[in-house]
Structure formats: C-alpha cells, structure tokens
Amino acid sequence: MPRDRYNFDEQFDIDVDFSKLNTKWYDDQILSNEKDAKITARREARKAKYAKNADVKVISPEDITEGKKKQKKKIRTGRAVVLMLALAGVMALVGVSGVKLTSLQIEKKAAEKELARLEEKVAQLNAELKELDSEEYVENAARSELHMIREGEVMYIVDPGTEEEAKEDGAK
C-alpha cells in the first residue's frame, strides 16, 4: 500500500494512508462516469452502424428533445393560425352585420318618409270626403253639373253661342 507523507507545517508531521480512507463516493463517481462513457460509446457505435443504412435514422435524446420543441412550436403556430382565422371570421361577421344594419336603417328612414307622406294624403282625402259630404257641396254640384233647381226657382239657360256673340259685340 502506498504511503504518502505530507508536511503541512514544521510542527506537524502527518502520515496519511490513503488506502484506509472512505473512497466509496469517489469510486461511485468514477464508475458513473465510466458507465456514461460506455453508454455514449454504444450510442455512437449504433449511430455509426445505422448511419450506413440510409433508411434507418438513429435519434439521440437531444434530437428527441429538440423535436419535441419543434413540435410544440408547430402546435403553437397552428393554434395562432386557428385563432387568427377565428378572429377574422368574427370580424367578417361583425362587418357584414354592420353593413346590413346600415342598409336596414336607410330602409327604415325611407319607410318613415313614405309613411308620413301617406298619412298626409289620408288626412287630405279625409278632409275632401268631409267636404263632399256637406250639403253645400252637394247643392252646388247639383246646380252646376246637373242643372237642378229648388222648388219655386226659375232656371235660365244661356245659349253658349249667343254668349260668345255678346262678348264680341262688347269688345267692339
């Protein structure tokens, strides 16, 4: 067994026997590193073996992690696209609804104007109907159009030809 001698200070002379120290942790680290090295060597050997075949591709854990990141990015991009399309659809529906609402408001104003015009015409026709139902209007219409007279009245009919001659004589 090797014995090393260390002189830390002139007062202390320490003799250390490294074979008696607890080196289990150190040995575990070395074994772990050796196992990792063996695993890595096996992986590299497999990669080299399968790299000759163009059909087979060996994927390392790093590649898988990177692939998952790419896949997540694609999913996020896909979700963003779907969200944008949904937003565009909603905006289109709102735009179409807005245009339809505006056209309906224009139609409503036109209908209100037409209603006001028709109500005025109805009022005018009601006034005319009242006038036609009055006794004065009926009497005037009967005298002028139907040449009717009341009892005891005398009607004089002037020949239109003589009336025109009288006007001509008066103008001379």
Order of helices and strands: EEHHHH
Strand percent estimate: under 5%
Largest sheet: 2 strands, antiparallel
Strand order of the largest sheet: 1-2
Description of the molecule:
- The structure is a single chain.
- The chain is mainly alpha-helical and 172 residues long.
- It has a domain at 1-58.
- It has four helices and two strands; from the N terminus they run ββαααα.
- Strands 1-2 form a two-stranded antiparallel sheet.
- A hairpin with a 7-residue loop joins strand 1 (4-6) and strand 2.
- The longest helix is centred in the middle third of the chain and has 73 residues, at 61-133.
- The N and C termini lie far apart (171 Å).
- The model has no long low-confidence stretch (mean pLDDT 76).
Topology:
Layout: E1 4-6, E2 14-16, H1 24-51, H2 61-133, H3 135-144, H4 160-171
Antiparallel strand pairs: 1-2
In short:
It is built from four helices and two strands. It has 172 residues and is mainly α.
Which key terms come to mind for this protein?
172 residues; mainly alpha; two-stranded antiparallel sheet; 4 helices; 2 strands
